[in-house]
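lol forgot to send this yesterday, sorry. struct tokens for the thing we talked abt
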């Protein structure tokens, strides 16, 4: 592998342009090209970052070793499969795809081509979440609020696949137990699919998670509250703070945990590059992304079933 890792970015809208900007300043990385169906957008970013502008992703094959894919969710499978078949390591933004067969196919291609397939569940790289993980052993109840202003992008999928899926991945990493029962409600407000939703999930371990996700709120909120037998943690991934309350013989001890704040997306991309260089498994694998997708799709089905019953 060359000393400087050659990388590209496919899809350079709001999020993809941030990927490109980070790669352009990562040590040991050379941003070769940015690719977007909108030629003007690709060319403007390429001029800013000193790289080439492309409109056809297959032209990256043979020129880069790794690439981020931040195109619309419905295009994840065809674009990621093209890159992986071309021997390119891929970080695909969440959701991994919009269907389980497509997600499983990407995993198979990555294995056959011996490529890293990482999924962009960026909250796993949030310093607040990582600090909290050290204090969690057997979560019993999890309460999540993830509220966002309307994005005017990513609305080709429901709020479950667009917003809630971040927290589904986090919860699966915390609980490490299959979901045995769930119910969900959601309604469309500004788009054709659900923009606000609530889901309640029971896991085989006995843990219960209650999630509220919205992409039509005035102010952003990213808060996870976790309860176990002897402690409670409140994690704010936006502010990157963690509050801890622990039961002791003398009462409740409260503290703010130390958090080494950093930009989660930079940590995510740096981890992807390390996996490519070393061949180590990514923190968020294709299998992890598929598990989060499977749960999100179950929630979608429950939301739509309940809406049909409500209108019957």
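and heres what i got for the seq, position by position
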């Amino acid at each position: 592998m060359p000393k400087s890792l050659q990388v590209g970015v496919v899809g350079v809208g709001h999020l993809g342009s941030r990927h490109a900007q980070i790669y352009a300043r990562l040590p040991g990385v050379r941003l070769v090209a940015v690719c977007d169906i909108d030629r003007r957008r690709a060319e403007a970013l390429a001029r800013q970052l000193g790289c080439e502008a492309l409109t056809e992703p297959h032209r990256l094959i043979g020129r880069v070793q790794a690439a981020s894919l931040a195109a619309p969710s419905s295009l994840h499978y065809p674009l990621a499969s093209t890159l992986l078949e071309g021997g390119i390591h891929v970080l695909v933004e969440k959701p991994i795809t919009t269907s389980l067969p497509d997600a499983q196919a990407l995993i198979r291609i990555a294995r056959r081509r011996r490529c890293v397939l990482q999924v962009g569940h960026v909250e796993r790289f949030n310093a607040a979440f990582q600090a909290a993980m050290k204090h969690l052993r057997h979560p019993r109840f999890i309460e999540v609020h993830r509220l966002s202003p309307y994005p005017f992008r990513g609305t080709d999928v429901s709020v479950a696949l667009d917003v809630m899926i971040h927290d589904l991945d986090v919860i699966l990493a915390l609980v490490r137990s299959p979901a045995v029962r769930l119910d969900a409600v959601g309604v469309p407000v500004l788009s054709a699919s659900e923009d606000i939703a609530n889901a309640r999930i029971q896991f085989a371990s006995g843990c219960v998670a209650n999630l509220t996700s919205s992409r039509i709120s005035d102010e952003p909120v990213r808060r996870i509250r976790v309860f176990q037998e002897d402690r409670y943690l409140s994690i704010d991934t936006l502010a990157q703070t963690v509050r801890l309350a622990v039961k002791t013989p003398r009462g409740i001890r409260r503290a703010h945990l130390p958090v080494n704040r950093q930009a989660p997306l930079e940590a995510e991309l740096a981890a992807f590059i390390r996996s490519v260089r070393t061949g180590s498994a990514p923190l968020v694998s294709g299998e992890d992304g598929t598990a989060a997708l499977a749960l999100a799709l179950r929630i979608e089905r429950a939301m739509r079933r309940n809406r049909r019953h409500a209108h019957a």
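The chain has a mean pLDDT of 95. anyway ping me if u want another try
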